[in-house]
Design brief:
Elements: E1 4-7, E2 19-22, E3 25-28, H1 33-43, H2 49-61, H3 64-73, H4 77-81
Parallel strand pairs: 1-3
Antiparallel strand pairs: 2-3
Helix pairs in contact: 1-2, 2-3
């Protein structure tokens, strides 16, 4: 599997599209770094869907309650052994 990552300047992309994914190509404007990272993590299946959404909510808001919500989505040590 080959994954390509490209960041383009805002002049090369419509302002309405801060990050786009098409197959193995994931691109973002200069202001789309967080969404770009989310799309990469989703493409690589790094997290389960609920964990990825909680991760995105925490880093987009920085609110402590979002951090605790993120931690609740992670598997426990006991569940990893099963």
């Amino acid at each position: 599997m080959c994954v390509q990552f490209i960041i383009e300047s805002p002049r090369e992309q419509p302002e309405s599209a801060i990050s786009e994914a098409d197959g193995n190509l994931i691109t973002a404007s200069a202001t789309g770094g967080l969404l770009w990272a989310k799309q990469i993590l989703a493409h690589l299946n790094v997290f389960q869907e609920d964990t990825l959404e909680a991760w995105y909510q925490y880093f987009s808001t920085g609110r402590p309650e979002q951090f605790y919500a993120l931690m609740q989505t992670l598997p426990t040590a006991n569940s990893a052994l099963q």
